[in-house]
Amino acid sequence: MRWIFISLMVANLAVFAWGMVFDSDEHASQPARKLAKRDPFPNIDEIKLLSEVDIPAAPVDMAADELSELSGPEVIEKPSKPICEIVGAFPGREQADNFVERLRAYDVQSELKELDLPVGEGYWVYLEPEATRKEAYRRLSEIQARGVDSYVIPKGELENGISLGVYSKESLAQDRFKKMKALGLEPKFKTIERTQREFWVMLKHGEGLKMSNLSWERVIGEEKSLQRRQNFCLDVASQDNFH
User: Fold this and answer.
1) The model scores a pTM over 0.70
2) Does a structural domain hold residue 116?
3) DSSP helix/strand/coil, 60
4) Residue span of the structural domain in which 109 resides
5) H helices then E strands: how many in the chain?
6) pLDDT tens for residues 40-70?
7) Whole-number Å distance between alpha carbons of 212 and 218
8) d(Cα 185, Cα 175) in Å, to the nearest integer?
9) 197 beta partners
């Protein structure tokens, strides 16, 4: 009995030792089997970072039509300035106002325009401005009492000064300057741009189409000196564009 028990113990120990060795071999071979597994996504390319990829540069010589598609938005040209019909010049405001009324009888809309147009250089003889308007008029009274034709300058850089005359010729202005000096005054001399005020009637844009040649003859009547002109509408363009 004793030997039987010892034999069974030895057999059990042998089986236990064999099992331990086999199990160790199986676990050691598992990583190798895992490494030998097939790729589960054989049809998908390998993923790469953008920094690892060589991207070819765009060609330099692009077609002209491709370049035009890349250009900025199309620039829309501004419409040209409207043209109006202008009639004048009238001798004064009253005559121009009457002409506006005659056009209104033909259902033509128009308006009076006062234009200060340059007429060349002028030469101004004057006295320096006073501190106030009151002092300017006091000074004017003294000068006029001595027979000098003059007036107070109402506005501008020489406001409250005394004008002694504006001349179209420099020689005339110099003569006036010397005479004022002889009277004990201290005149100044200045070259300016002379202007002339004219009165014109401007038909509103498109209103001239309502007038026939016969209508124009009736409206103008005996005022043969009046001129009809096509010009930029003066409410859009300045009087510098008046020709």
Assistant:
1) no
2) yes
3) coil
4) 83-241
5) 6, 6
6) 444 445 544 444 545 454 454 544 455 445 4
7) 10
8) 14
9) 116
